[in-house]
Amino acid sequence: QVELVESGGGLVQPGDSLRISCAASGRLFSSCTMAWFRQAPGKERTFVAAISWSGDTKNYEDSVTGRFTISRDNAKNMGYLQMNNLKPEDTAVYYCALDRAPYRSRRYYSEYREYDYWGQGTQVTVSS
Question: What is the pLDDT of residues 76-87, one digit of tens each?
Fold first, then answer.
Protein backbone atom coordinates (compact mmCIF):
# COMPACT_ATOMS: atom_id res chain seq x y z
CA GLN A 1 0.00 0.00 0.00
CA VAL A 2 0.97 3.63 -0.46
CA GLU A 3 0.15 6.63 1.68
CA LEU A 4 0.52 10.12 0.24
CA VAL A 5 0.78 13.30 2.28
CA GLU A 6 0.78 16.73 0.64
CA SER A 7 2.24 19.82 2.27
CA GLY A 8 3.34 23.36 1.48
CA GLY A 9 0.05 24.99 0.57
CA GLY A 10 -0.94 28.41 1.83
CA LEU A 11 -2.16 31.91 1.08
CA VAL A 12 -0.14 33.87 -1.47
CA GLN A 13 -0.59 36.96 -3.59
CA PRO A 14 -0.97 37.00 -7.38
CA GLY A 15 2.42 36.70 -9.04
CA ASP A 16 3.96 34.84 -6.11
CA SER A 17 5.57 31.42 -6.19
CA LEU A 18 4.89 28.34 -4.08
CA ARG A 19 6.22 24.79 -4.01
CA ILE A 20 4.01 22.01 -2.76
CA SER A 21 5.29 18.58 -1.85
CA CYS A 22 4.01 15.03 -1.77
CA ALA A 23 5.59 12.52 0.60
CA ALA A 24 4.96 8.85 -0.19
CA SER A 25 5.31 5.80 1.98
CA GLY A 26 5.95 2.30 0.69
CA ARG A 27 7.98 0.85 -2.17
CA LEU A 28 5.65 1.57 -5.07
CA PHE A 29 6.36 5.28 -5.50
CA SER A 30 9.40 4.96 -7.74
CA SER A 31 7.57 2.71 -10.23
CA CYS A 32 4.36 4.75 -10.46
CA THR A 33 3.21 7.55 -12.69
CA MET A 34 2.67 10.59 -10.48
CA ALA A 35 0.32 13.50 -11.03
CA TRP A 36 -1.10 16.59 -9.45
CA PHE A 37 -4.79 17.41 -9.67
CA ARG A 38 -6.73 20.31 -8.21
CA GLN A 39 -10.28 20.96 -7.16
CA ALA A 40 -11.86 24.36 -6.67
CA PRO A 41 -15.03 24.75 -4.58
CA GLY A 42 -18.07 23.46 -6.43
CA LYS A 43 -16.02 22.20 -9.36
CA GLU A 44 -14.72 18.85 -10.55
CA ARG A 45 -11.21 17.60 -9.84
CA THR A 46 -9.04 18.54 -12.81
CA PHE A 47 -5.63 17.56 -14.13
CA VAL A 48 -2.65 19.84 -13.52
CA ALA A 49 0.51 17.90 -14.35
CA ALA A 50 1.88 14.37 -14.65
CA ILE A 51 5.34 12.81 -14.64
CA SER A 52 6.57 9.36 -15.58
CA TRP A 53 8.24 7.09 -13.06
CA SER A 54 11.70 8.05 -14.33
CA GLY A 55 10.96 11.75 -14.51
CA ASP A 56 11.80 11.81 -18.21
CA THR A 57 8.31 12.62 -19.43
CA LYS A 58 6.15 15.45 -18.13
CA ASN A 59 2.88 16.91 -19.28
CA TYR A 60 0.84 19.87 -18.18
CA GLU A 61 -2.61 21.31 -18.41
CA ASP A 62 -2.58 24.22 -20.85
CA SER A 63 -3.29 26.98 -18.33
CA VAL A 64 -0.26 26.08 -16.18
CA THR A 65 2.24 25.37 -18.95
CA GLY A 66 5.25 27.63 -18.53
CA ARG A 67 4.31 28.52 -14.94
CA PHE A 68 4.25 25.16 -13.13
CA THR A 69 6.94 22.47 -13.00
CA ILE A 70 6.38 18.92 -11.78
CA SER A 71 9.29 16.90 -10.46
CA ARG A 72 10.10 13.89 -8.32
CA ASP A 73 12.91 12.43 -6.25
CA ASN A 74 12.52 8.66 -6.18
CA ALA A 75 15.36 8.21 -3.72
CA LYS A 76 13.41 10.28 -1.20
CA ASN A 77 9.93 9.12 -2.20
CA MET A 78 8.99 12.74 -2.83
CA GLY A 79 7.05 14.57 -5.51
CA TYR A 80 6.87 18.31 -6.06
CA LEU A 81 4.94 20.97 -7.89
CA GLN A 82 6.70 24.31 -8.30
CA MET A 83 4.15 27.00 -9.06
CA ASN A 84 5.27 30.39 -10.34
CA ASN A 85 3.33 33.52 -11.31
CA LEU A 86 0.30 32.27 -9.43
CA LYS A 87 -3.10 33.61 -10.40
CA PRO A 88 -6.38 33.79 -8.47
CA GLU A 89 -7.80 31.10 -10.74
CA ASP A 90 -5.14 28.70 -9.40
CA THR A 91 -6.92 28.70 -6.04
CA ALA A 92 -7.90 25.14 -5.20
CA VAL A 93 -7.11 22.10 -3.11
CA TYR A 94 -4.16 20.36 -4.76
CA TYR A 95 -3.94 16.57 -4.67
CA CYS A 96 -1.04 14.25 -5.35
CA ALA A 97 -1.89 10.94 -7.03
CA LEU A 98 -0.14 7.75 -8.15
CA ASP A 99 -1.03 5.39 -10.97
CA ARG A 100 0.51 1.92 -10.92
CA ALA A 101 0.25 1.72 -14.70
CA PRO A 102 3.14 2.86 -16.92
CA TYR A 103 2.96 6.35 -18.37
CA ARG A 104 0.37 6.38 -21.14
CA SER A 105 -1.41 8.82 -23.42
CA ARG A 106 -3.17 11.98 -22.28
CA ARG A 107 -6.45 10.11 -22.20
CA TYR A 108 -5.09 8.22 -19.19
CA TYR A 109 -2.64 10.47 -17.36
CA SER A 110 -5.12 13.36 -17.26
CA GLU A 111 -8.03 11.26 -16.03
CA TYR A 112 -8.36 11.22 -12.24
CA ARG A 113 -10.27 7.90 -12.34
CA GLU A 114 -7.10 6.17 -13.58
CA TYR A 115 -5.17 6.87 -10.39
CA ASP A 116 -4.91 4.34 -7.59
CA TYR A 117 -3.64 6.35 -4.62
CA TRP A 118 -4.48 9.84 -3.40
CA GLY A 119 -3.35 12.21 -0.71
CA GLN A 120 -5.65 14.30 1.46
CA GLY A 121 -4.86 17.53 -0.40
CA THR A 122 -3.30 20.88 0.43
CA GLN A 123 -5.07 24.21 0.05
CA VAL A 124 -3.55 26.86 -2.21
CA THR A 125 -5.21 30.27 -2.11
CA VAL A 126 -4.12 33.09 -4.40
CA SER A 127 -5.59 36.41 -3.37
CA SER A 128 -4.60 40.02 -2.92
Answer: 999 999 999 999
